Amino acid sequence: MASVISNNKISEGIYKTILCSPDISAYSHPGQFVNILPSYNWEYVMRRPMSIASQGDDNISIIYKAIGEGTRIMANWEKGSQVDLIGPLGNYWGNYQSSYPILIGGGVGIAPILNLHTQLKKDYIQH
């Protein structure tokens, strides 16, 4: 479970949600994702995989486009709402110490790239 810290529209149909989830924040790495249950209503039982755009200070953020019923429900989450999520899931980018990473992404697919960019800056790795 996580609680919604903020849920803001950052562009037309694009949202950034910050969720308080200390365990996921502590153990996630760039390239990983969470599976989110948008609603407890049985009509919307499918979880949505969402890349983690940032993590730290007990929080994670996701960036998504509200295009279907599930993500439209997510776009209406209010501060303090409780969200059922599972994560962190998936593999993450490994050792990039001996390379010069080039980061390419676009649209809402930029979320994991933003997370990697932040980690590379923190590790003083040029990219």
TrEMBL record:
Domain FAD-binding FR-type: 1-95
InterPro entries to which the protein is assigned, alphabetical: FAD-bd_FR_type, FNR_nucleotide-bd, PyrK_electron_transfer, Riboflavin_synthase-like_b-brl
Signal peptide positions on this chain: none
GO molecular function: oxidoreductase activity
PANTHER family named in the record: DIHYDROOROTATE DEHYDROGENASE B (NAD(+)), ELECTRON TRANSFER SUBUNIT (PTHR43513), DIHYDROOROTATE DEHYDROGENASE B (NAD(+)), ELECTRON TRANSFER SUBUNIT-RELATED (PTHR43513:SF3)
Name of the protein described by the UniProt record: FAD-binding FR-type domain-containing protein
